[in-house]
Amino acid sequence: AVRLRVREALGAREPAGEVKVQGWVRSVRSQKEVLFLHINDGSSLENLQVVADPSLENRDLTFGSAVEVQGKLVKSPHKMQNMELKAETIRVVGPCDIWSFPLKMKERHPLEYVRQFPHLRCRNNTLGSLLRIRSEATAAIHSFFQDNGYVHIHTPIITSNDCEGAGELFQIETSNEARESAEKTHFFNVPAFLTVSGQLHLEVMAGAFTHVFTFGPTFRAENSQSRRHLAEFYMVEAELSFTESLQDVMQVIEDLFKTATDTVLSKCPHDVELFHKYIAPAQKLRHLARKLSCYSFHSYLKRLFFFFFSCSISYNEAVEILKQASQTFSFKPEWGCDLQTEHEKYLVKHCGEVPVFVINYPYNLKPFYMRDNEDGPQHTVAAVDLLVSGIGELCGGSLREERLPFLESRLQRLGLADAYQWYLDLRKFGSVPHGGFGMGFERYLQCILGVDNIKDVIPFPRFSHSCLL
């Protein structure tokens, strides 16, 4: 028998004989003359209906059990489905104790409930849809960069660099090092940390390959249990050589966002619809759709990311908007202070709930590698943040300081010249104007799915009681 995935069986145009489908039972309905099963193998949100003789039923054929069904693929008489499988044999590969199985048939479990079972929650429809969307979005991001001539670089996970300069680092030690703290000898001879960004390593590669990107795990030792922070998350980062315009960096961010979102909407329409219908804050999504005269949040996304993606303001303008706001903020907006999440969300709302680029941040607010704008009394750097509805900051980028005297001077003032001598070498040997950006992958998923809690867009939630974590 030819093995078919559920998605292939549902999408088949013609009947087929002697096929085999393997998966897990989602429902069992036994009638006097016919046995109905719905099975799923994770390839599709939709289940494949199996029609069988009641004599094929046995005590192990229950919700959650793993089965292998052989038979003929035939046209379904029902309008809601194209094909169904007429079973000739049903073999229970792995039985399931339905009394102790925490997921119940035909129940829509809230995310708070399934979060208690990180080792089983992928069998829930919502998390199954999320993982398929993650997979397609990951492939779309890689395809975007490959199609535009970028070289994929695997940047180190263990590094001695603190690229962000925020000090939120997980230090790496061996078990012996932890015990022998009185007489410290580092495994790598220097303190080593889990990476917070692959940017500096990408800059090395951009000096040879012009356009490079990485897509991998990054870590923040930020002791926060909030709905928008993770200790481990995935970051998309890119560097572009031979660019002197912040607009070039912004254009790549916009094109990446549009391309990835278009792919997800076209390849996972049912999975995305599940989130918009049952998971996302319904009133908020209806409000946004109504604001742009759309009939659904799905069409709102298309209009938002393909027609309205053009709002750009300076940091100066952002601060003035915030100061004139009627809303009272927990953090008072002042020039020279970083924008807080509440500020970022207000700016998006002020601009009509469309993505907003904020550019040219204060010099003293940003890391050493951002390019000095050499502007008047309000000293700024060529930096950009992309703010989106409901999330705040999604992407951050800048032009990099390619001028050796400027970079040397700043590193000396910060006392980092010795540690970053190798970074100065990049400016001595064939330096070119360049820029880049990073995008938090989980925040991107939150944005397109309308999910409120970032821990619901990762495969395994942290801080769980599960022995797996």
From TrEMBL:
| NCBIfam families linked | asnS (TIGR00457), PRK03932.1 (NF003037)
- Record key words, sorted: Aminoacyl-tRNA synthetase, ATP-binding, Ligase, Mitochondrion, Nucleotide-binding, Protein biosynthesis, Transit peptide
Matches recorded under PROSITE patterns: AA_TRNA_LIGASE_II (PS50862)
In terms of superkingdom, the source organism counts as Eukaryota
Q: What GO terms fall under cellular component here?
A: mitochondrion
Q: Which Pfam families match?
A: tRNA-synt_2 (PF00152), tRNA_anti-codon (PF01336)
Asked whether the UniProt record includes Phosphoprotein among its keywords, one would answer no
Listed SUPFAM superfamilies: Class II aaRS and biotin synthetases (SSF55681), Nucleic acid-binding proteins (SSF50249)
The entry's family comment says: Belongs to the class-II aminoacyl-tRNA synthetase family.
PANTHER family assigned to the protein according to its UniProt record, in alphabetical order: ASPARAGINE--TRNA LIGASE, MITOCHONDRIAL-RELATED, ASPARTYL/LYSYL-TRNA SYNTHETASE
Reaction(s) catalysed by this chain, per the record, are: tRNA(Asn) + L-asparagine + ATP = L-asparaginyl-tRNA(Asn) + AMP + diphosphate + H(+)
Entry EC no(s): 6.1.1.22
Q: Which is a GO BP term held by this UniProt record?
A: asparaginyl-tRNA aminoacylation
Cytoplasm in keyword set: no
What name appears for this protein in its UniProt entry?
Answer: asparagine--tRNA ligase
**Residues in Aminoacyl-transfer RNA synthetases class-II family profile domain copies:** 131-459
GO MF annotations, alphabetized: asparagine-tRNA ligase activity; ATP binding; nucleic acid binding
State the compartments where it is located: Mitochondrion
